[in-house]
Structure formats: C-alpha cells, structure tokens
Amino acid sequence: MCLDAIITCLSSWKLWIRPLAILCYAVAALVFVPLFLVNSLKEGFTKRDQEILVAGIFVWIAIPLSLWEIILHVINYTKPRLQKHVIRVLWMVPIYAINAWLGLIYPKHSVYVDSLRECYEAYVIYNFMKYLLNYLNMEMDLEASLELKPQVKHIFPLCCLPDWEMGREFVHICKHGILQYTVVRPLTTAISFLCKTLDVYGDGQFKGTVAFPYLLAVNNMSQFVAMYCLVMFYKANIAELRPMRPLPKFLCIKAVVFFSFFQGVMIDLLVYSGAISTSGKTDDGLGLSTRLQDFLICIEMCLAAIAHHYSFSYEPYARPDYRTQNCCGAFLAMWDISDVQRDISEHLGIVGSSISRRFRGRSMYTIPRGNDEYAGLVSPRTTISEPDTIYQDECDELIVNYGTVGPRQSNNKTQNPRIEE
Length: 421
Prior knowledge:
Blueprint: H1 2-11, H2 13-42, H3 47-75, H4 80-90, H5 92-105, H6 110-139, H7 142-147, H8 168-197, H9 212-236, H10 238-241, H11 246-273, H12 288-311, H13 327-334, H14 338-359, E1 378-379, E2 399-400
Antiparallel strand pairs: 1-2
Helix pairs in contact: 2-3, 3-5, 3-12, 4-6, 5-6, 5-12, 6-8, 8-9, 8-14, 9-11, 11-12
C-alpha cells in the first residue's frame, strides 16, 4: 500500500512540483536572510556586507524566475531535441548568479566558482548552436537548403576573407568555429587555475611577466570567432529561423555570455589604468575589479532572467493533449551530455584531419562533389513520422561517420540525389 501511494504521488508530480519549489524557496529565504542580517549587525554591517545584501536581493529574485521557467519546460517537455538545449541555456542565470554572489561572500575561494562560470559559458554557446541546428534539421535538409541560397558575404571588418561555400562547408565552418570555444575555454580556465596556484597569473595586470594578458588574448580571439560564426549562421538562415523568434534569443546569449566577458575586460583595464581608484586589494583580500564584476553580474542576472522568461518561453511547447512523462525521465534526458562528448570528438577529429590535409597540400573542402570522400561525414537521419505518445526522440542527433571510407555509392540519382549547380 505504501509503495503504491509513493508511485501514485510520483506519477502526479505536475500537481506538487511547483508548490514544493515555492515552499523550499520560501523556507530558504526565511532561514538564511535573518541569519545573514544578524551576523552582519554583529560585525558592524560593513561596506562589504552592504554589497552582499544588495547583490543577494537581485540574485534571490533572478533564481526563482529562472527555476520557474525550467520547471515549466520540464512539465511541458514535448520536444526533447529542442527543449533539452533550452533548459541548459536557462540554467545559465542561476549558475552565473550564485557564482557571482558566492564570489562576494567567499572572496578567497572565488577562483573555484569563477572557473565553473567560465566553463559553463562555453557550454551555453554549444547548446545554443545545437538548438539552432536541431530546429533547422527538423524542418529541412539544412545543407541542401543552403546550397540553393545566394552566397553569404563576410561582415566588416572581415569582408576580405574568402567566401564560405554555401552548403556543407558553410555549416561545418560555423559549427566548428563555435565548437572550438567549447574546447578552448575550459583549457584556458585550467591553465589560469594552475597559474594562480603557482602565483604567476597576475589577475588584472597587463604585464608581459604574468599569464593574465596572454590568456585574455586567447579567450578574446576564441570568443570572437565563436560569436562571428554564430552571426554568420544567423545571417544565412534568418528566414528559416523567423518562426521561432531568433533575435531575442540571440540578444540574450550575446548579452549574458559575450557582454559579461568584455565587461570584465573593461573593468580590469579601468582599474589597471587608475580610472577607477583602488589601493590594490580590499580589506577582505578581493580585488576591486573582481568585486565590481561579481556585483554587476548579480544585478544583470536579474534582468537576464526576465529576458529569458520571454525569449525562451515554454508556451510554444505546451500541449495539453500530450502524453504525460514521469519527472525522472525528463530530468535524466535534460542532463544527458553524450551529445557534447560526441560533438567535441567530431570537432577534434575534423581539426586533426584538416591539419593533416593542409600539411599534405590539400584543402578540406576543395574535393570535387562527385568524388567526395567526406560524403558520409554529416548525414541527417531520415525523418520518421512518430506518434505523439513517444516522448524522448531516439534520433536526437546527426550521424557522424569517421574512419575508413566505405564502398563508393552508385551514381544513380535516385540513391544519391544531388542539386545541379
């Protein structure tokens, strides 16, 4: 009887998940806020306490807004191929907000939480790219569609670069231009962590004897490439993306990920040049530039949570007639990162193959179309009409083929149709 009651309760999780979330949040607020105020009053309520309190107000507003939207997506989890990546993007606000607030509360340990934020921002860019690719591949053959379009020109100041051939080359360059940031950012974060441990990082110092300016330049270049590829991809598919209102989503991603990065760079420059006066370190050991960055992020995450509520709303996915899925299945599908491992492996394989080919004097994309040894590199799965009762799409990603090229396909157009140019 008890087991049956538990199973019945779990099966009706939609009815109690939202009240439970509200109750837990209210209890946490009623416990931690008074404790913080009492502790601060005992120490005299310093300027640092005021910063933590003001930043905490914005953080504790931002977190429930984002968690509420995440819960609504889980409740209405009708398109896993899209919503899995949307939910990962929505987690950006709680992670950023809690990260920055903990950096203010525990300044000596800010290096650890900052590393998490820096890695997650690369993860957000990856998931936004996958969201766009899955959306377009659900509606059409993306590469064939791009081959029919006029050439997309480069944007100033890179208009002197050679055009990316529309079709497979364009998709691959955009995809791997974004994926490289997913690889570079964790690597530079690990290097910066090691340099801080060895006391050679020089946070906020633009000197040739410390690692900070070099790692900053690498991150800046990598992020610029990712952002440029994202803009080019948007420019090429703006008409097809219009039904899902892409502009607010692009602005949200750029505002949170790219703006926060360049905001930190500007603060470091202003502090280093003396435009923002500081005595070097505050009494709690936290640098002024780091403290300002964390404080501003706490405020900005509240605005980002509101923007995400409208840009990544659950409403387009709400279908009352859809079969109910248990919360465990939706939760596990949301955190399945096998697609990340697969795409990073593909990216490293493509980069390694491209470097090898260039050493041999061959370009990756100049093979004649009729004799293309990369014909099986990215091949979409055949679209299968599935009943509405199926919840998790088993055909979630693209097939990626590596290794030895198989037997050459027949030239019969019924087996391998191609668009005549």
